[in-house]
Design brief:
By secondary structure, the protein is α+β, with helices and mostly antiparallel strands. It has 6 helices and 6 strands, in the order αβαβαβαββαβα. The protein folds into 2 domains: about 1-25 and about 160-195; about 30-155, Glutaredoxin (3-Layer(aba) Sandwich). The chain has a 4-stranded mixed sheet, with helices on both faces. A two-stranded antiparallel ribbon has the order 1-6. The mean pLDDT is about 85.
Length: about 200
């Protein structure tokens, strides 16, 4: 009987150890980029003036009124960064449309749609993101980038939400295995007790 309990304890310990490995070894978000565009600081200033970017803005979304992803991005910023974002619609604002055309031309295909979000720091463009993103960690990291004349476009990398989902899945599987093992051992013990009677 003691041997069985020791075996169960060892199996449970091994399963729990395996379940903790993803939390330790799956990498955190690492930001790399699809490419970059070159815009002088003077051209960046001109672009931001065309968009009427204010000093408080960290994120500026170029959007389209009929774009559902644009609506989601604006909703995300209004919830997560309400004091630090602004936007314009290319179908209502000619300066907005011209700014997107400049970015599209300079990016040689990297910037080809909306929403296009400019990450702004110290009155300059620090990074550009095309498409909807709802990961606060990535946006916070983008806010830390120092602006240069080579603006990174479209951060890529392992999303921390993916890391969490993988780790949680493995943890749930491990807990299920422990529960199954415990039930199996309990049933065997109950059978053993009923045979004695």
């Amino acid at each position: 009987m003691v041997g069985r309990r020791a075996l169960i304890a060892v199996v449970v310990a091994v399963i729990l150890a395996l379940a903790t490995l993803p939390w330790i070894f799956i990498p955190d978000v690492s930001v790399s980029y699809e490419g970059s565009i070159k815009l002088s600081f003077e051209d960046q200033r001109s672009l931001l003036e065309k968009l009427n970017v204010s000093e408080r803005d960290s994120f500026y979304v170029i959007a389209l009124t009929t774009c559902p992803w644009c609506a989601l991005q604006l909703k995300y910023f209004s919830k997560e960064f309400p004091e630090a974002y602004n936007y314009c619609y290319i179908d209502f604002n000619m300066g907005c449309r011209e700014a997107l055309e400049v970015l599209a031309r300079e990016s040689r295909g990297l910037i080809a749609g909306v929403p296009t979000t400019l990450v702004i720091k110290d009155g300059r463009v620090a990074a550009i993101v095309v498409g909807y993103r709802d990961d606060r960690n990535t946006w916070e990291q983008l806010r830390q980038i120092e602006p240069t004349e080579h603006i990174p476009v479209n951060p890529t990398g392992l999303n921390p939400q993916v890391k969490t989902k993988i780790a949680l899945t493995i943890t749930v599987i491990a807990l299920g295995a422990i529960t199954t093992l415990a039930l199996h051992m309990y049933k065997r013990e109950q059978k053993h007790i009923s045979r004695r009677r």
